[in-house]
Amino acid sequence: MEKMSSDCPYPGCFFCVMKEGNPSKRRASILKFFRELPSQDDDGQVLPISGLWNTAMAHPNDPEFIELGIFECMAALIWKGLKNRRWLYHDQNIYIPYYAAHIIGSYTMSVEEFAESAVNAGVIPPLLELLRGRLTWVEQRVAVRALGHLATYATTFPAVSSHDEILELSIQLAMSSLEIVYSHFYQYVDRRLSYHCDLLTRGMGGVEMESRKAEEWASQLQCWSLQLINCFAFKPEFLPTICKPEFLVKLPGMWGGLVNENSPAGIGLLRTICHHKIGRGAIAGCPGIIEALCNIARSSDDWQYMAIDCLLWLLQDPNTCHKVIDKVVPELVDLAEITTLGDHKKLGDTIVNVLQDCLESQGSGRSSISSHTKEQIEELLNSKQRLKWEKTMPKEDLHIKQAAALVVKLEGNSLFSSGNISGAASKYSEALSLCPMRSKKERVVLYSNRSQCHLLLQQPLAAISDATRALCLHNPVNRHAKSLWRRAQAYDMFGLSKESLLDAILFINECSQSNDPDLSLRQNKVPDYAERLVKKQMRAAWLFREAAIKHGGVHSQGDGGDLYGPETDDSEWETASESDEENDRRGDDDDGDDWKHDDERRDKYDKPSI
């Protein structure tokens, strides 16, 4: 390729080619560049590749380079790195396979025709070699990303699935990715490959930045593996391979972490698996998965609706309903007041209809329901019937019921303030039986108050149930600050770190936007008790926690230190003692908790640290 600029010392410089003003000459020069680059051994080859990487990221839908042979060029460069280690370790060529696979993934991300061109160019075999781990986890990450994009399209999925090994490798990678990144990079700072560090931080950060980016990339490696598996899960013939108990049971724990919250991760794959009866049968046979789905269904996770979908499908399948109904019904009853969750409208009505069908199917002999489960469903149906009756009642009668509920609630508050927590809980239950069903704001307060009583009485399951009901009734859903905090503490009692962490973070967010002087953040400062719980749960829910324990429990060596700071004493809880008499006097509509320490009550009722 002839020299394009008198100022450039490199003949055939790609950047000079890109400056060519004549379109036909420019295309011819780019075509020649792509054809000749894999056979050249000149220094500085990484520079044009990194330039192409930037272009692919910025303009992934531009067809120019696709038409001129970029996929053939990238595939050849990956093969060259795999077969010619002398070339790979020369100059900065070690970066090239990573950039090449990333370029393939970027251009195939959203245009099916580009994906077809990539398959025809032969990119799958070299990507498969990277997926096998022929180089390092960094290249595995971009390989599984590119293969996931190719598997998304109906026209290119057969080419991906024709390689039987891809599914098995993806499953193994999803299960082992966090341990791989921890043991091969995160654990020992002095053993980190320099080019890994450069790719992670672009030369802009030190050890701590490398560690944080490594956690993000490890999460992406796992989530992109799950995305690739998800493409296979839509095909029933691949479900026996996917639905192995040792893999399924790990899926609820694959959540992307705070660094990758936009990925549905394991719950997204479980939802796809539940679409087919083979998948539902496998999931229903794993009690641990059902319990985890129930936890996600009542959590404040962005993917809550996916877990609810899974539970509803399991109940609607006659072959799985009897296996899960006794475990699933208590959770769904708590969620039946949800009206809208994201784009999902009338979700609560759907839950009620499915539970009613389950009850009716028992009468026809199609399923078996325990007496306790039957009572819970009937109680829910009665509450819905009660709501219908109230619509026909005179307004005066409703006002009388609401006033009576308020009187009983105040009695409960008085008992709570005097230390009679059990008596207060009973009064709140009585107030709920009186309070009109359509008085949602008042019912939110009553459920939340009773949740606090259960919390102090060391009844975390009941506290979670009531807090969940309050959050479902609240508008917007899952945004009642005090219920979030109470449920966060109850989850902590159960050791549900992720759920507790999400609720605690949402509680802090709600406090930052609240007009309540007891809740609003003073001088933009996070309450100490909330900060302590968040730090504790960030350690417990840390993506690398299991790997760190397995490999010696070392979070980080060198200057990075402990990613989440030193251990703190979490034995002192903030319980937020209940007394809304002051708020009633000033006309506040909320439950008006006193969110300050009450040492005597805390010593008496709060749990010891776990």
UniProtKB/TrEMBL annotation:
Record's protein name: ARM repeat N-terminal plant domain-containing protein
One protein family per Pfam: ARM_7
Acidic residues bias (residue ranges): 567-582
Location of the region described as Disordered in the Swiss-Prot/TrEMBL record: 554-610
Top-level taxon in the UniProt lineage: Eukaryota
Organism lineage string: Eukaryota, Viridiplantae, Streptophyta, Embryophyta, Tracheophyta
Residues annotated as domain ARM repeat N-terminal plant: 7-244
Ranges of compositional bias, category Basic and acidic residues: 583-610
Gene source species: Acacia crassicarpa (northern wattle)
